[in-house]
């Protein structure tokens, strides 16, 4: 009978996650957001999961790769969403509103406030160039949508992206998500930030924006 990949656990699971990889990411999220990158070791992460340090390397080749995976988790779903929304016939105001709300929700539903990781000095390293490229791509998607509403030379073009990212500062880091990922309604913080993004552009709020956005997100998820 085939055994599990990796070495045996030192003890029973103690982290949230359906797989060892998810448990590692959960532990790393807590340690990185609470004590930083430099002072967190792979030994500490493995110990927090309840596995041997050598077993961690079956899932991630390095601490840097774990950090990059967490950084990308705050951006990749929204990059994909921008592509999906661009392929719809929805008007620009709703697409921009949905982008802000969805990114804010993404930052709110994680157990730990992983959006904070971008604020750590190490995040500026060239080792994380892939993440920076994705973040720049996402920021440009926000900017392009805003330009459809107010023109390409407006100084407010970058504000919707930064408003979405401000969800990082509007939640705690206690290990409890600030919003329910499975809820049929968007978190109030996400709605407030999305409304603010259109308000700052002096754009009328779309009718039924919340339910319409939820329906779009569910539709994309079912593709």
Task: Give a written overview of the molecule.
- With 223 residues, the protein is mainly alpha-helical.
- The chain has two domains: 20-61, Homeodomain-like (Arc Repressor Mutant, subunit A), CATH 1.10.10.60; 72-222, Tetracycline Repressor, domain 2, CATH 1.10.357.
- Helix content is 55%, strand content 0%.
- It has ten helices and no strands.
- α5 (76-86) packs antiparallel against α6 (92-109), α5 packs parallel to α7 and α6 runs antiparallel to α9.
- The radius of gyration is 19 Å and the shape is elongated.
Broad structural category: mainly alpha
User: Considering DSSP H and I runs of 4 or more, what fraction of the residues is helical?
Assistant: 55-70%
Please give the largest β-sheet.
Answer: none
Mean pLDDT: 92
Q: Cα-atom Rg, whole angstroms?
A: 19 Å
Note the beta-strand portion.
Answer: under 5%
Judging by the overall fold, what is the CATH architecture of the largest domain?
Answer: Orthogonal Bundle
Silhouette = elongated
**Fold-level CATH name of the largest domain:** Tetracycline Repressor, domain 2
Secondary structure tally, helices: 10
**Could you say how many structural domains there are in total?**
2
Series of secondary-structure elements, N-terminal to C-terminal: HHHHHHHHHH
Top-tier CATH class of the largest domain: Mainly Alpha
End-to-end Cα distance, whole Å, is 36 Å
Low-confidence stretches: 1-10
The total of beta strands comes to: 0
